[in-house]
Predict the 3D structure of the following.
Amino acid sequence: MAVYTDVPDEELAAFVAEYDLGAVTAFKGIAEGVENSNFLLRTERGSFILTLYEKRVRAEDLPFFLGLMEHLAARGFSCPTPVKGRDGAALRQLCGRPAAIVTFLDGLWPRRIQPSHCAGVGDALARLHLAGDGFGRRRPNDLSVAGWRRLLDAAAPRAHEVRARLADELLAEFAHLERAWPTDLPQGVIHADLFPDNVFFQGERLTGVIDFYFACDDALAYDVAICLNAWCFEADGSFNVTKARALLTRYEAVRPLSQAEYAALPVLARGSALRFLLTRLYDWLNHPPGAFVKPKDPLEYLHKLRFHQGVRDVGSYGLG
Amino acid sequence: MAVYTDVPDEELAAFVAEYDLGAVTAFKGIAEGVENSNFLLRTERGSFILTLYEKRVRAEDLPFFLGLMEHLAARGFSCPTPVKGRDGAALRQLCGRPAAIVTFLDGLWPRRIQPSHCAGVGDALARLHLAGDGFGRRRPNDLSVAGWRRLLDAAAPRAHEVRARLADELLAEFAHLERAWPTDLPQGVIHADLFPDNVFFQGERLTGVIDFYFACDDALAYDVAICLNAWCFEADGSFNVTKARALLTRYEAVRPLSQAEYAALPVLARGSALRFLLTRLYDWLNHPPGAFVKPKDPLEYLHKLRFHQGVRDVGSYGLG
């Protein structure tokens, strides 16, 4: 839950006056979103989200993120669209921070994942991958192999505080992934953080995708592997093959996976599990006492990693 | 900032289905409100606030709070109105907690207080006091003199952790107030927590008042004294007589104060300062490490208390 920066009256009024949105009629901090300060902004023209980008987002990446949302929306993919001021700029400054207004997306994120949600996510992810084609900006994935090494170096000395011999296990996995990581898979723009709280539904209908602040260029199948981890495990740690099959089948109906992508899914899923394990471990070891945001349990992803270590082929993910 | 309880999909759908509100189109946790979990709820019928009452609110008080909002709204006072389900009930259960839906109130609370805001608050407070007349339920103020004694007993042994000799100063003030506290002033329903974040404006126009969860029966002039403390001090601790005059003048234009109420204002303001000082001190000493909500500085109210100790008559508050 996050509002790190509050916005004084005059600053808000002056900021909104740069747009063609009319007067502000309501303004409320939103308790969701971990990295930035988000506000529901209602004006005479409708409902919007105002985001102030806090220090974990690099300002130089913002044109990529906002440009991507605009590119995807223009191609019919349902996501928040940056609203431009009268001067044509979507990215401006508010309270000393980069800030932007985006359109409000109806729907709510699912708290209890059903196979129908996974089907919707598979479909939306494939459409996102196709819609991303032709986007002119580039952003390398700084949370791929080289980024894992940095996180591992930072977290390994204190990893035993979370679990005995955790560092050894992570170092061995990293060594394996560094050797086995595929580099010749189809590339494109990936969301890279498509967790349930970033996907909105009304009933079973997917209404859109939010939070593109980890988006980058990488193997498209890596995004699929992230979703297998984020959507297909149960709270008790078990892997739900029905959900995985729903996700993969609907993805493939829009964008078929190549044989190389099929074959790589288990190692991509291991890499994805290690990536979230390492960022959660780092946050767990380094969150300030009294922080607003309670860090997530890194060990959830250790269990996911171990599951994928035991996978020999995509049959384990529900594909024949 | 507060969402203590999240609401799973099926529970939300089943809850909203008890109302005549159509399907849910959006649902977002709100970062404001300290005591309860609040959500923006949009349905096919409009925007609402869904509140889950957490343990600091006593369930047996909720019919008073919700009934008061309904009573005030029916008399033309702008505040959230409880929405009733098809069975006629506004108060129900959700996720094991008492819960209610109220109407969404446009406007935003002022971050930088101007004299015009104080004028609006004076007017609205007086109209609230008149509109409360005839409300059938009663709720004693459990944060009046007897409540201060309980808080003082609980906080005094550790008050030195906040400031040396603070307990002595608070005990002396309490002894004075216990003797001097007026009991024969005009009584009625008071808001008792009319801080800036509970009053919404659009520009200079006050659009409504929220958060009636401290409302109770007490001296109406005590509510005025609470507002003097909440609205008329600057961040540097100085008392702004222009703001106080605006607040009192506009209050009096709707509900004139009696001579006894005038004379009592300084002691009521001291009592109000002690009340917020004690609850903040208690929260400061007892907040769990890592709590979502950062406790407010109790010493802000020590400075306010000392100001009112030096006041001899309402001339200091800008009245002639």
Q: What stands out?
A: The interface with chain A takes residues 1-3, 6-10, 12, 23-32, 40, 42, 104, 106-108, 110-112, 202-203, 289-292, 294 of chain B (CB under 8 Å). Residues 65 and 212 of chain B are 6 Å apart (CA to CA). Chain B has a mean pLDDT of 94.
